[in-house]
């Protein structure tokens, strides 16, 4: 996480997710779910 001191803008330059999702029926959908969960988690953490 990086914070710009003058504007107080927060940036998250890199995210790493490790997931054990079991059998995958649709790889594209599974990847989208992982990305969405990561974005949601970052948003929730930064909102506090």
Chart the SSEs and their pairings.
Layout: E1 2-3, E2 10-11, H1 27-47
Antiparallel strand pairs: 1-2
Number of strands: 2
Order of helices and strands: EEH
Low-confidence stretches: none
Rounded mean pLDDT score? 94
Strand arrangement, major sheet: 1-2
Q: Helical residue percent?
A: 40-55%
State the shape.
elongated
Largest sheet: 2 strands, antiparallel
**Cα distance spanning the termini:** 15 Å
By DSSP (H or I, 4+ residues per run), the number of helices equals: 1
Give the class from helix and strand content and strand pairing. mainly alpha
* Rg from alpha-carbon coordinates: 14 Å
Strand content: 5-15%
Structural overview:
With 48 residues, the chain is mostly helical. A hairpin with a 6-residue loop joins β1 and β2. The longest helix is centred in the C-terminal third of the chain and has 21 residues. The chain is elongated, with a radius of gyration of 14 Å. The two termini are 15 Å apart. The mean pLDDT is 94.
